[in-house]
Design a protein that fits this description.
The protein is mainly alpha-helical and 180 residues long. It has one domain. 76% of the residues lie in helices and 4% in strands. Strands 1-2 form a two-stranded antiparallel sheet. A hairpin with a 3-residue loop joins β1 and β2. α1 runs antiparallel to α2, α1 packs antiparallel against α5 and α2 packs parallel to α5. The two termini are 19 Å apart.
Length: 180
């Protein structure tokens, strides 16, 4: 199980790094556009389109790592209260959360797949012909990859919670540090 966890965590971390690099590239693009627009009256074509596509990609690239690191919004106060009563009780609530999350992200993955296929087959693009165009399918693919990585992280989390229910002992992630 630890090898699977290591592989999933490594993929998740690489997606997070890609999201971070995309943020940096986006900031450089926006700053360059502002300077070019202000100083030379020469805006860069397609910046709004690239920003709108990039924001969606960033969210789906970084969501799995945010989940893995415990940075999703949740009520720690309630969970800590439950844990004081019984570690198994907390794990039961965490299991319910994980099952619901798996269901929701699975629905999102299944709903997004036809949009990817449609944008791939039709060569859908954003922008204006003659000025700037960018294909939409890469972002649709990132959504699918991000959902799949998030499902994998949630499944690992669910397995840990089920172990807590079975053993009554806290289970820490086997590899919190993921060496590249």
């Amino acid at each position: 199980m630890s090898l699977i966890t290591l592989i999933i965590n490594r993929i998740t971390m690489l997606l997070n790094v890609a999201g971070t690099l995309l943020i940096v590239a986006l900031m450089v693009l926006i700053c360059t556009d502002v300077i070019a627009r202000s100083a030379f009256s020469l805006p860069i074509s397609g910046v709004p389109e690239m920003v709108s596509l990039s924001i969606v990609a960033i969210v789906f690239l970084q969501a799995p790592e945010a989940f893995r690191m415990g940075r999703f919004t949740r009520s720690e106060a309630m969970l800590n209260f439950l844990e004081k009563r019984s570690i198994r009780l907390r794990a039961i609530f965490e299991t319910i959360f994980a099952i619901a999350a798996l269901g929701i992200i699975s629905i999102l993955l299944n709903a997004s797949y036809p949009f990817f296929i449609k944008s791939w087959n039709r060569d859908t693009f954003i922008g204006t012909i003659g000025d700037f165009i960018a294909p939409v399918w890469p972002v649709k693919l990132v959504i699918l990859i991000g959902c799949a990585a998030l499902i994998a992280q949630i499944a690992l989390y669910l397995a840990r919670q089920l172990t807590v229910i079975r053993t009554g002992q806290r289970v820490e992630e086997t590899s919190s540090e993921v060496p590249l």
